[in-house]
Amino acid sequence: MAILSRLIAAFAPILNKKQEQQLKQPSLSRGAPNSLILSPITSYTDQILAIHRTRTSAGFALDIPLIMLTASILKIFYWPGARYDRALLVQAVIMLAVQAVLLKVALDNRPGWRGGAALPLRDEKADSRPWGFWRWRGQRLAPLLGVSTSYWQFLLLLTVLLLTLHLLLAPSPTTAVGYTALLGGLGLAIEATLPLPQLRANQRARSCRGFRLSVLANWLFGDALKMAFFFLSDAGKVPWAFKACGCFQAACDVALGLQYWAYGEGGRGV
Description:
The protein is mainly α. It has helices at 2-54, 63-82, 86-108, 122-126, 151-169, 173-192, 195-205, 213-232, 240-263; strands at residues 142-144, 147-149. It is 72% helix and 2% strand. Helix 2 runs antiparallel to helix 3, helix 2 (63-82) runs parallel beside helix 5 (151-169) and helix 7 (195-205) runs parallel beside helix 9 (240-263).
């Protein structure tokens, strides 16, 4: 009995620590997912209001809505095959709606906007993209591979294409696995590049003018939440693709924070 008592006393701190972790886990499971779900609203509302209030989207990288809209659509189609945590699915749906609003406001307030035709931003002139992709002057018609398209028509075309592929490939188990992995990897990799356009725009302008500090703060706060949720959740609940891409995006957000510290909102902006 004496030996048993000593063993219990020796392992008591370890057992107590494990019990504390088990008690903390429900709080994490409730708190982090809820914050992740609301993060699209808290992250971009101030940016939307700022563009609407100042009547200009100069300094804001238009590629941000492109990245997040494309990534969100891919992640939504990724869910049926991967069945990842529902909180991440709900976040993708809300992000899709918020980014659509942000894109609309940014396009309506582009510098030089005159009745549906906008002059390109300074960084747009320097870009040499095939068919002027995502640098179209208007919201309506623009040539892409000989087809009349626009920002909205491109997003609709992407959705219809993914829906068609899903219906064709999902019934076959052999192709469904590879297709699901491709969707997840592509969607998360695209999302991980989110800070890169803004990093590039800030570097060119030597200024962060036009990019809201509140967006950066929410990105960094969201990174902390994601890291906690991804790595402290039960095994298998969050695929490793989410974790790897989340780490890369967090590193880029830190670099964006260093830019803001170095440049501030001085200079001419983009």
